Amino acid sequence: MGVKGRFGLVVTSGAGAVLVLTAGCAGGGGQGELASGKSGAVTITPGNGTASVKPDGPIEVRVADGTLENVTVQGQGATITGKMAGDRKSWRSDRTLTPGTSYTVTAQARRDGKASTATSTFTTLKPEKTLSVVDVTPNLKGEKVGVGMPIMVRFNRPVTDRAAVERALQVTPEKPVEGAWRWIGSDQVIYRTETYWQPHQKVRFNARLAGVPAGAGVYGAADVDETISIGASQITTGNIGKYHMTVVRDGKKLRTIPFSAGNGQTREYTTTSGVHLLMEKGNPVTMVSPGRKEGDPGYYKTVVGHAVRFSNSGEYTHAAPWSVGAQGSSNVSHGCLNLSPANAKWYYDIMQRGDVLKLTGSDREVEWNNGWSYWQMSFDAWKKGSALT
């Protein structure tokens, strides 16, 4: 049991001197005593012992007499920071709190040259449902990506209040460029820049999601931080009607490669024009004719080497030793870019996810949502998909 000590402090056995705080109702403030012995000098909201505090409610500290010197918030959830008023009479947290978490607020004040400390410990509401980030792409350890790479974020459930969640998402490149989020579903949002990223830099993605009200009683569960490495600027341009593509890295031409593209006999067998991004690679990859089973006209099942995907409609660059004679002079494929084994391996080895592949010369334009072909959409149109416009 504590006994009343000098300066209005309560001295507790084994715990030293701590400032007296009275528990308030849910979300209420607790009053403390300064070392001068005058009560009511420091108020912390939520008050000591308060339970089920809404995660999107602020923490506030006020001093009636004297000034605040420092305020800290400790807890197992998100790191909570805040802003001190210019007159140092008040402090307010500047972000949401982690649900289902215990926090301790410590306020240091000074009056008439005498220092004191006040504390308040409270717990936040534990909601029935929370919103979490289940995937951020790109996220492969040690990966460097191309200058066209978007940032793709997927959540564990549909987002009702998209604006609140989008405000919690921050993208910070070392070399600034304008960008915007676009929702492409109830549980997925994608960030694209107005122009390509500058090469050779780090981009930080931060979702300050903990405690964000996502709608329908759902709160963000936890913050997410990712650092994305932008590699060299590798841009490939090719003309389907001229059967060649040229690879440029950081402004320097690396190689011109002959290819054989789709034969164009059907839309399916026509290689798409437009701005594509390289998505993934595999060696080997089994190519199967879409929508056909064995025995159907046009059915095929072929294993190819050093394949690099650039759309969701089955388009790859890959090794095609059977069509080397046509590469550079005619289009005979089912829609892929057939390359010689040596060129296919070279392209496979240097590719980065998010590298740009810009093709012209066919009458089939790639759709903006076919794979990662988001650069097919103008930036003005892209921004209209934001919840904040």
TrEMBL record:
Pathway the protein takes part in: Cell wall biogenesis; peptidoglycan biosynthesis
Domain L,D-TPase catalytic: 234-360
Protein name: Lipoprotein-anchoring transpeptidase ErfK/SrfK
GO-annotated cellular components: extracellular region
Positions of the catalytic residues: 318, 336
Organism listed in the record: Actinomadura viridis
Cited Pfam families: Big_10, YkuD
Organism domain of life: Bacteria
Keywords noted in UniProt: Acyltransferase, Cell shape, Cell wall biogenesis/degradation, Lipoprotein, Peptidoglycan synthesis, Transferase
GO BP term, example: peptidoglycan-protein cross-linking
GO molecular function, a single term: peptidoglycan L,D-transpeptidase activity
Gene3D superfamilies found in the cross-reference section: 2.60.40.3710, 2.60.40.3780, L,D-transpeptidase catalytic domain-like
